[in-house]
Amino acid sequence: MNATHEEHATSATAASRCEPAAANPAGATVLPRILLLDDDPVMLAVQSHMLRAMGYAEVSTATRAEAALAMLHASPQAVDLIICDLNMPGMDGIEFLQLVNASAYSGSAVLLSGEGQHIMHTVRRLLAGGRLTILGALEKPATRSALNELLERWQPRGAQAPARRPPPITTADLHAASRESQWVLHYQPKVNLCSGAVVGVEALVRWNHPDHGLIYPDHFIAAAEECGAVDALTDWVLQEAMTQLGRWHVRGLPLRVAVNVSMENLRSPYFVHRICALALQTGTAPQDVTLEITESRLMSPSPTPLESLARLRMQRFGLSIDDFGTGHSSLAQLRDVPFTELKVDRGFVNGARHNQIIRPMLEGSIAIARGLGMLAVAEGVETSDDWQLLRELGCDLAQGYFIGRPMAADRVPDWLADWKGRSAGLIGS
Ligand code: C2E
Ligand code: MG
Ligand code: MG
Q1: Residues 178 and 128 occupy one common structural domain
Q2: Sheet with 59-62, edge to edge strand ranges
Q3: pTM flag (> 0.70)
Q4: How remote is the CA of residue 323 from the centroid of ligand 1, in Å?
Q5: 400 CB under 6 A from ligand 1?
Q6: How far apart are CA 141 and CA 45, in angstroms?
Q7: Residue 217 CA: which ligand 1 atom is closest?
Q8: I want to staple 76 with a disulfide (CB 3.0 to 4.6 A). Which of 7, 104, 136, 423 is the partner?
């Protein structure tokens, strides 16, 4: 297995995140037909004039959500993009967009509001997963350049690669995967934001399915936990990651490795013994291994996970609270578990510089880590803006596509050589 699949999959992800569209007024052939919805007729006139001046010739308007809905119901294919004011008397933009999201219309939308970023963030969350593609949200009055930036993201229907539906997963498949060694590990680098030094890699499992190709962990970890296959999976991941670490050390690469551990693993009274035995067998120092833990049920009545975590820490394994800020990665967990690392979820990292909502949360998470004497790690670092902000905020470590995508073990030495050159420029030395 090589990194080709990973690169392919991640570029598909980038496409689904609305890379600038091929079609734009400057050089394109296809332009969206726009429906502008705003209860203020003056604003409507100003905006439609602006859009026409930008080269968008087909702009229809409505001052009431009911009228706009009727237009869309009559011919859902006649509009490609809706620019919608959220604040309207009668049916407001939230209700309108939810109805559109559940209708036959499968185009795009831009949100407009004078209520500030937070409400627009909430509405975007509300609409996520529906048929509408939300290109973005703008504060009113929208400037020409801000509108242009969002409209450039527009793509015609069907231009995006359809998301591949994950195959149904059965218990028998999962047990067969363990028996027949269908697991593959890819490794994603973690680097020091101050010095640029590579401190280690996170091991991320993929399932090389004989019929469906490479399947990503979000599609099978929960099923493996439910059917009891996750112990064998984690056992394989730990053994493989520690063995690989030994190979790198022999080559003079002083890396550490992080492994994701499921809460189901920590429930097993044998887990601590098993991981210690694997470390001994592979000649791995526990200090070189960090266990990343995300879970909703850490604080369940059963004391076993807490006991396992305390004992693992006493053995000097690193413990990371993964995806901090989401789900149940909470302050209560930080209080009760001797974590050594706080890994801020990527939802609070990417784009934080210009986002008034997530930036204070990122700053707060880094301050908590510092206050507790833990390493602060940011995941999902996708741009040089993200990278620079984290340096300014004093975050310790970073991980993300900007630094390096997950890759097969044999690609790591080349990546390290490449990063050496790149990082010198990034840390400004
Ligand atoms: P995680 O531990 O939070 O791992 C990071 C995930 O973010 C990885 O997805 C990685 O490919 C992705 N990622 C990394 N950098 C970026 C970035 O800059 N932008 C974006 N948008 N994404 C980025 P992946 O490999 O699909 O793993 C998903 C989750 O599955 C992991 O989240 C982890 O919770 C779980 N997982 C992975 N391997 C294992 C494993 O061996 N055992 C268990 N129990 N869970 C695992
Ligand atoms: Mg992780
Ligand atoms: Mg994470």
Answers
A1: no
A2: 59-62, 34-37, 81-85, 108-113, 133-139
A3: yes
A4: 10
A5: yes
A6: 13
A7: 30
A8: 104
